[in-house]
UniProtKB/TrEMBL annotation:
Listed SUPFAM superfamilies: YefM-like (SSF143120)
InterPro entries linked to this entry: Antitoxin_Phd/YefM (IPR006442), YefM-like_sf (IPR036165)
Chain positions covered by the region annotation Disordered: 59-80
Function: Antitoxin component of a type II toxin-antitoxin (TA) system.
Family statement: Belongs to the phD/YefM antitoxin family.
The protein, known as: Antitoxin
Length: 80
């Protein structure tokens, strides 16, 4: 548990890859917070978009976040 009282599940990169569909389902439906540690010991945190929106707006709807800024590309082409 983090100092702020959030329960985070921790996975290595390899574990996360093997269980990715299940992890995503738990993040979205169970609002779980998942930490994935890469080989370089840097970590990323997976949270649902609903939880992110709630955190980033202080619990209020964020109509300005509904559409991506002009000229942005909202896909993973070039990332993988």
């Amino acid at each position: 548990m983090t100092p702020g009282g959030i329960c985070m599940l921790n996975f290595s990169y390899e574990e996360a890859l093997q269980n990715f569909p299940h992890l995503l389902d738990n993040v979205v439906t169970g609002h779980e917070v998942i930490t994935v540690q890469g080989a370089n010991h840097e970590s990323v945190v997976l949270i649902s978009k609903d939880d992110f929106d709630s955190i980033s707006t202080g619990g209020l709807p964020a109509p300005t976040l509904a559409a991506p800024p002009p000229g942005t590309n909202n896909n993973l082409d070039g990332w993988l």
